[in-house]
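Table S7 (text form). Paired inputs.
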Amino acid sequence: MGFLEDETGIESSLPRELYVLVAGSTTYRRTSHSADVVYGGNTYTAAAVHRSNAAIAGGDQVEMVVELPFSDSFVQDNAFGFPPQTMTLTIYRLQVTSGVAIILWQSVITSIAMEGRIAKVRSPSLLDDPVTTQIPSVHCQRMCNHVLYDSMCTKVRADFDLATTVSAQSGNTLTVASVSGAVDQYYKSGDILIGNERRLIVDQTGAVLTLLAPFTGVANGTACTIYAGCDHTVETCRDKFSNVIHYGGFPFLHWKNPYLLRYAWDGQ
């Protein structure tokens, strides 16, 4: 017997839906069945999980919405604070009789939204996600348009990193063992890497870093790497990175709007 025979059979059809949610380096396996399911050497934990059909969310975009309870560890780890940069969802339909499973859905996770005690995990189709991605635009402004360390900036991230360890963490505040004598705010607007997860550094005073969102489960002594930040001004580009030749802004742009000045003159 194969999957199709089981799926269409009256007596042989024993379907189970299996959910694999991957967030960074952590994998969460769930099933909507009333009891745990073992498949492929992995255990899928029974949970109050529910999914939509692959439906049109808005316009022509197709997406899958998976609902999980607030108490689920996937929700607790990733719905609050700063989630990993990459999260994926794979849904299998398993026929127990033949032991064969097919993939019903596989794509990235773009958002986790809370509605009361339910978390809605949204996953657009692989074809729709790149099409709906906003393309960065260049603005006529004094500040640099480039993203630090991108191909337009040309600076190499590894040239401005420092390997150190975590000394203490309390909420969004994390203390590292050393900043190697860097002045205050040298690492502001940079980031810190622990394992596969990054956090934005919004303030730095000595070895004390204030993060946009805290890490979870980080012990003292954990290895980390911190990277210098940029405030996108021409002065920082010149003095900190010696990179004015690649500056992506217009530093001599006049502060006053000439059109507004003209209207003011016409009104006098």
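Next pair, protein 2 of 2.
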Amino acid sequence: MRILIIGAGGHAQVVADILQQRRERDGMTQPLGYVDDRSSLHGQRLLGLPVLGSLNQITGIPHEGIVIAIGDNDTRRTVFDRLRRQGERFIVARHPQAVIAPDVRIGPGAVICAGVIISPGAVIGANVILNTACTVAHHNMIGDHVHIAPGVHLGGDVQVGAGTLVGIGAMVMPQRQVGAWSILGAGALIHADLPSHVVAVGAPARIIRFRKEE
């Protein structure tokens, strides 16, 4: 399958590495290169793959699937919605060294990085990033467009609302609920439910401000 990577920044190169490692194992995954609206990148090669042009040029590049490789959740959602309306096919970029229980459900366009562990009964939404070495325990519900950063640990039966960023090394205790479009700071310890549209930091985490609703 010929796959385009949407974006050409640092996270996009992580996605490129995932797809290249998949190609080494299955012989079918074929990453074509990146598209990015930054014209200064056009023509460059990153991890051996070319930056082929801008986002509005993808219809002229023969491909069977795409992965949106943009770290910012709101931007990634906007691009996802645009490309879904255009009828693009979103593939799951799963690193070969991720460990995923057989019954886990994963939405279109998710990126699952090296060292990720997803336990039984978990549901992962569309366009989600599960970053390096995070753990998603049993029966978690992860909403669309969420980013679970490197080294995060989510206890069992945790719910994370759409668009939320769980920062590097944060921990969420079992059976806790985190609302949509919130930000949990690096190293935060979530021991109580959190509402939507908040920024919470510290251990134990405390709300330091409210965010503008999306």
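The CA atoms of residues 156 and 174 lie 5 Å apart.
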